[in-house]
Amino acid sequence: MNDAVTRETLISRLQAALGVQAVLSDATDTAGYTEDWRGRYRGEALCVVLPSTTAQVSDVVKLCAAAGVSILPQGGNTSLCGGAVPPTDGPAPVILNLARMRRIRQVDAANGSMIVEAGCILKTVQETAAGVGRLYPVSLGAEGSCQIGGTLSTNAGGTSVLRYGNTRENVLGLEVVLADGTIWDGLRALRKDNTGIDLKHLFIGAEGTLGIITAAALKLHPLPTQHALAWFAPRDPAAAQQILGMFQNACGSRLSAFEIMNRLQFDLVLANVPNRRNPLAGAHAWHVLVELSDTRDAEGLEAVLTQTLGEAIEQGLVEDAVIAANDTQRADLWEVRHSVSEANKKAAVGLTTDCAVPVSSVSEFIDAATRAVHAVVPGLDIAIVGHMGDGNVHFIPMFSFAAWAALPDSASMGDTMRACVNDVAARLSGTFSAEHGVGQTGLPLMQRYKAPSELALMRTVKAALDPHQLFNPGRLVP
Ligand SMILES: Cc1cc2nc3c(=O)[nH]c(=O)nc-3n(C[C@H](O)[C@H](O)[C@H](O)COP(=O)(O)OP(=O)(O)OC[C@H]3O[C@@H](n4cnc5c(N)ncnc54)[C@H](O)[C@@H]3O)c2cc1C
């Protein structure tokens, strides 16, 4: 902070710009913004501001820049890697939460686009699109609370990447407030625009280090109205991989999800989240949810689902399978998949990892990472859940709360476990951060796994767009 500006001066200037109600400075009011939802990360904020318009965001940026105080943009605070809360070291930033910027500015079904403000909740965007017969396909467990700005800034993945791509593939344009307060209006809802460097991609996945996203033009797709879903127990991950290929050949782009979890992960959901049940008879080592969808012809979908699963059973790749008989059963099975994070939070200390490897290497990754973890802690519980269709596996070494508390140095155990898993991904030409982002958890890993030339390029971009380190200083690029 500049010597000339005190905390109180900045707060009163922010109050004058936004109104008193939009500036929270009391510790009890800011508590929900300075800690992550799992209680693993907590930091200090100078205050929390809740602007309602892009112009107000610009005002906040100018005031903070003049005062020499950094800004932490925040969405729904659902980050799984401590990305949305301040660090414990360094000067306290102003948290700029976008929750009040939640207007849907435009829906254009014919163009397959909608323009929404960054604070819109993902689920609201999905529902609004569905209301005009369109699909916004990004879908994930936190969709009831994460914001569009957060999903853009982390380039969120989720369960439909296999068919529709990551968030990046579903954005047409952005509006961003830059480090000097300039509002960049790049809200063009075009599918073709080759007029120079595509600037929006700089801000997508930048985790709030280059600017504050205030609105986005999103790409909508035809709304599938017919679905066919099966839950089955593959013999092992290699069999699941083979079955994925069979579905891709049989269904093409109608294959919309292929999610895998191991028995421990499945059991944790049943034990810790009410109203979740095992759709199969008996216990199985592995579970897969596969879904097909289309805009018409439900019978055709079910036929291809049944036939492909039947072939897999004949080949000895599947131990048991069930097909959802109606939309309620389908929703129930998705609930099992979406309950994983809630279950794990209640059950134990899970060291979440977020690796992606080529789809053809998923089974090898699971085997090798299991061996690597067990070489350090023999027999340790490991929950595995993954978007197998896109090669993203959350491989989660689990410690009971008591075992974790008894460790002489739990932080270094966490680092060792993550290194075991991430090193295997790196060896298989994979990544340590497929969809959650880098946040605080992944920051040290950037140095370990990214090439110096790549880090240098990122530093050049940061220096050009945010020369005074206003936005999330010290994040993303170590
Ligand atoms: C139950 C559960 C399930 C999840 N499942 C998935 C999953 O399947 N796939 C997946 O990818 N993620 C998943 N996540 C992680 C998380 O939901 C996503 O990363 C989400 O995109 C974060 O959105 P948010 O609004 O909560 O952002 P926050 O957590 O608030 O912020 C995340 C980052 O974005 C920055 N940021 C936020 N808003 C803006 C903005 N407007 N402008 C600039 N920077 C901004 C922040 O500074 C921070 O660096 C899950 C989380 C939970 C709790």
Give a verbal description of the structure:
This protein has 478 residues and is of the alpha+beta class. It has 3 domains: 7-97, Uridine Diphospho-n-acetylenolpyruvylglucosamine Reductase, domain 2 (2-Layer Sandwich); 104-222, Uridine Diphospho-n-acetylenolpyruvylglucosamine Reductase, domain 3, CATH 3.30.465.10; 226-428, Alpha-Beta Plaits (2-Layer Sandwich), CATH 3.30.70.2190. 38% of the residues lie in helices and 20% in strands. It has helices spanning 7-18, 27-34, 54-67, 122-131, 148-153, 161-164, 200-203, 237-251, 263-272, 298-314, 327-338, 340-347, 362-376, 401-406, 410-427, 443-449, 452-465, and strands at 23-24, 47-49, 71-74, 94-97, 104-108, 113-117, 134-135, 171-177, 183-186, 212-219, 221-222, 226-234, 255-262, 286-294, 318-323, 349-350, 355-356, 381-387, 392-399. Strands 12, 13, 14, 15, 16, 17, 18 and 19 form an 8-stranded antiparallel β-sheet that branches. A 5-stranded antiparallel β-sheet has the order 5-6-10-8-9. Strands 1-2-4-3 form a 4-stranded mixed β-sheet, with helices on both faces. A hairpin with a 5-residue loop joins strand 8 (171-177) and strand 9. Helix 1 (7-18) runs antiparallel to helix 3, helix 8 packs antiparallel against helix 10 and helix 9 (263-272) crosses helix 12. The longest helix is centred in the last third of the chain and has 18 residues, at 410-427. The chain is globular. The model has no long low-confidence stretch (mean pLDDT 95). Bound molecules: flavin-adenine dinucleotide. The site of flavin-adenine dinucleotide has 36 residues, from strand 3, helix 5 and strand 10.
